[in-house]
UniProtKB/TrEMBL annotation:
Record domain Ketoreductase: where: 213-389
NCBIfam families given in the database record: PRK08261.1 (NF006110)
Record family assignment: Belongs to the short-chain dehydrogenases/reductases (SDR) family.
Protein name: 3-oxoacyl-ACP reductase
Record field: transmembrane: none
Keyword Oxidoreductase belongs to the record: yes
Length: 452
């Protein structure tokens, strides 16, 4: 579904009318629209800075260079400078007094961002900081990033944070690549934790990173699942697209379009976990990426909710996922360096009237990835969730107009996301370069105000 305000705001005459009547004028968001490239920052203006004692700067600068950027420093900035990307390394802070470096660096450049600029900060993981003042300083950076993101979001610009565990500096390159590119368009104001625990793959290609990998996408016939199947296949994966038998025709079309394999299967069937495992084992020898995308809403206020609506949503959105993973992980159908990805929702973070069933399932998945996140590190398997906000799909098209408008506008970008925005985040988390990210729940919501 497309957004009428985004379309109208593209035309200068209508844009001023929209402004005059006090409606938001959403920026057209830059989207990559294709596979990863080697040097996405080539020809772009990038500014880099760091606080005293920062520990990740060397790796950051190597990554920027590899991405094609000749990074400038604060000394090069003039009033006319315009930055497509800005990176600040705030790791190594031992006292909140050092937060002044954020003001000193960002205050003079706040009017110098281009539309769709990308800002990334790095900080230490607060929970494992060496001292209380260090923990306070590290956590303060998150508040700074979230606020900064809200100040620049109407330009389509984003600000995100990478928490880097000590010793995990070598693992930040993949996250930086994602956040600094137009693949991360609708991920805004988010912290991602990079840890040193799990095994990293030996080879971490930046283009076609999924060559030779096999992916399973449940509920992949349409919407977010179909967009994800497309992105995964663009990066080289062979995608097994699964959906219910009643949707076999759409499923076949989607699977064919991505050069993948269709699997008509209801994930709530008692024998589904075994059937899926056998299919993957027999046809491909295993699976590398599992995207648990199938999900439904059956909204009713709890007082009016029939028990079958409760049971159905719990079965599809939560219980089937646990049952499938039990077999796929238990029988080692998931290969080493595998990726398990769950679709949570901001409904699972904030809750929603009329969604006690849905909210419970999507929050349950957060508990699931947090409890599983570090369990398979010895095999390099990561388990993460993404939490979409308002995404333009069949699910949101069915909402009443006023609720749909509220959901669409209540974020830093004043617009909904597209299925491809969720697909981009899932695809990044599926790459070898995301090996340091596990047990994370990353929102893709344009920094929605809901549950923030
Ligand atoms: P969608 O309705 O467009 O697609 C969901 C797919 O899942 C459908 O093709 C459906 O046939 C399939 N499915 C349903 N039950 C199944 C079953 N028992 N077995 C196999 N497949 C089944 O939905 P979408 O908007 O693309 O959402 C995809 C996921 O993203 C869901 O988990 C949803 O909860 C989550 N999500 C969506 C949004 C949004 O704004 N659209 C926001 C937050 C989270």
């Amino acid at each position: 579904m497309s957004d009428y305000l985004v379309r109208m705001a593209q035309q200068p005459a209508l844009r001023s009318v929209i402004k005059t009547i006090g409606l938001p004028t959403p920026q057209t968001l830059a989207r990559a629209g294709g596979p990863y490239v080697d040097t996405p920052l080539a020809g772009k203006t990038v500014l880099f800075g760091a606080g005293d004692g920062a520990t990740a700067s060397k790796k950051v600068q190597t990554t920027l260079k590899a991405m094609g950027a000749e990074a400038q420093s604060a000394a090069d900035v003039t009033g006319d400078s315009r930055f497509n990307a800005v990176v600040f390394d705030a790791t190594g802070m031992t006292d909140p007094a050092q937060l002044r470096a954020l003001y000193d660096f960002f205050h003079p450049i706040m009017r110098n961002f281009t539309g769709n600029a990308r800002v990334v900060l790095l900080a230490d993981v607060p929970e494992t900081a060496d001292s209380v003042p260090a923990a306070v300083a590290a956590r303060a950076v998150e508040g700074f990033v979230r606020s900064l993101a809200k100040e620049i979001g109407r330009k389509g610009a984003t600000a995100n944070l990478v928490y880097v565990e000590k010793g995990a500096e070598d693992r930040v390159a993949g996250v930086l690549r994602f956040f600094l590119s137009d693949h991360s368009t609708y991920v805004d104001g988010q912290p991602v934790r990079v840890t040193r625990g799990g095994k990293m793959p030996r080879s971490v290609p930046v283009t076609r990173p999924l060559d030779g990998k096999v992916a399973l996408v449940t509920g992949g016939a349409r919407g977010i699942g179909a967009a994800t199947a497309e992105r995964l296949s663009q990066e080289g994966a062979h995608v097994v697209v699964l959906d219910i038998p009643a949707d076999a025709e759409t499923l076949e079309t989607t699977a064919k379009a991505v050069g993948g394999t269709a699997l008509a299967q209801d994930i709530t069937d008692a024998d589904a976990p075994r059937a899926i495992a056998d299919f993957l084992k027999d046809n491909f020898g295993g699976v590398d990426i599992v995207v648990h995308n199938a999900g439904v809403t059956r909204d009713k206020m709890l007082a009016n909710m029939a028990e079958h609506l409760w049971d159905m949503v719990l079965a599809i959105n939560l219980r089937s996922i646990l049952a499938i993973d039990e077999v796929l992980l238990g029988d080692k159908i998931v290969n080493d360096h595998g990726r398990i990805l769950c679709l949570s929702s901001i409904g699972g973070i904030a809750g929603n009237a009329g969604q006690t069933n849905y909210g419970a399932t999507k929050a349950g998945l957060i508990g699931y990835v947090q409890s599983q996140g570090q369990k398979f590190g010895d095999r390099g398997i990561t388990v993460n969730a993404v939490a979409p906000g308002f995404i333009e799909t069949r699910m949101t098209a069915e909402m009443p107009f006023m609720i749909r408008e509220g959901g669409r506008r209540m974020n830093s970008m004043s617009q909904g996301g597209q299925p491809q925005d969720v697909a981009e985040l899932l695809t990044f988390l599926a790459t070898p370069g995301a090996g340091g990210v596990s047990g994370n729940v990353v929102r893709v919501c344009g920094q929605s105000l809901i549950g923030a």
